[in-house]
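Minimal example, chain plus zinc ion.
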Amino acid sequence: MTTEGLKQRLFAEIDRRLLEFQGVLRDVVAIPTDNPPGDTSACVAYLARYLKSKGLPADVYEPQPTVQSLVSYMEGRQAGRNLVLNGHLDQFPAGDPEAWSFDPYSGECRDGRILGRGVGDMKAGSVASLLSLVLLHELDVPIRGQLTLTLVGDEETGGAWGSEWLLEHVPMTRGDACLNSEPTGMDQVLIGHKGKYTLRIGTRHGGGLAAVPVEDDAIARAMAVTEALMGLKGWRLETPPDVADAVARGRERAVRGGELTGRELWVADSTTVNVGVIQGGVQSNTIPTACRMEIDLRTPVGVSTQDLQEKVEEVLAGTGLDRGEIDVEWVVCLESAYAAPDEEIVQAVAANARRITGREIEANVSYGSTDTRFWWRRGIPAAIYGTDLENIAVPDEQIRESEFGQVLKVHAATCVDYLC
Ligand SMILES: [Zn+2]
């Protein structure tokens, strides 16, 4: 059968069984996976049972208590490439139930919408990934190589015990390409992210009595460091030419979508600095001996971790302070990353999305963050395509029923293109 014939069979099956598939999504929404605490065990148990009932493997990993991830796969009859599907099962906490007009964990369908915490970010996407594997397996689609499913915990808290842990410890999850199903808006495929860093800085001083003050106590030094680091705002290096257009489109889109105002345009392709914590001193009548700061830095595509760390050292040297008395700790280092827009997986997702939605599909770079970065960082081409961005991470989270079916079709068709 041609790839077109295989896709037609998959689309017909999805249309015919959409209610059944919505039922799986609704069951998953009804299992709370708020993070914190990030317990995904009940959700993984449900999905593992479902996969096994379909004759598929379900390997469960738990690198931290209750932070579980699930891996399943189907192998082709011939050798070939390995396509990895990735989604997360944890979600933002529902928060105050009074702020919701329905039960956040009902998984109810109403007026053509599926309701509940996590349905958009990103249980609809994760279930679409799972069902893509199930459908290719049930219809005995003749793939070459392997289709691998990874549904993880810990995404909302950094990914170290979810996707990153799987990539380190379960070799089949690396693959030759990755398709992630985070919400993107149905008219764009995301191919890159900005970098994300947490920097902890401490300053010290020998101390003394306030009656004999000094000008370089720990708080004064922290203020000098803070002011100097604020100067990094807007810093950028040249954007690599193969992704420059996608960065520009991502910026325009964020304005159109109301996520950024015109005044914040620079954020998309420049460094941002947020001094989120300053703690120092004990009381007003002693010279402060210690001050601690925590700073969030986001870097544009084109700035590497080494570039940033060298730049920060340059900035600290510029303060004139004794570097030996400034403690610097890089707590989180997630370098900016992207896939080239002409990668096969990007092109396949965009073509299928264009076909299924009838909309123009753009390849964009976002200033947000997902687990996809862990594949990009390893040089594995990856693309993100999922449901709309409205109504996620807020009370009354919901998606349109039609989006779920469309995303499922795009993902299943992309598996066929890449593996058949
Ligand atoms: Zn997400």
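The CA atoms of residues 35 and 91 lie 6 Å apart. The domain at 3-193+336-419 is CATH 3.40.630.10 (Aminopeptidase).
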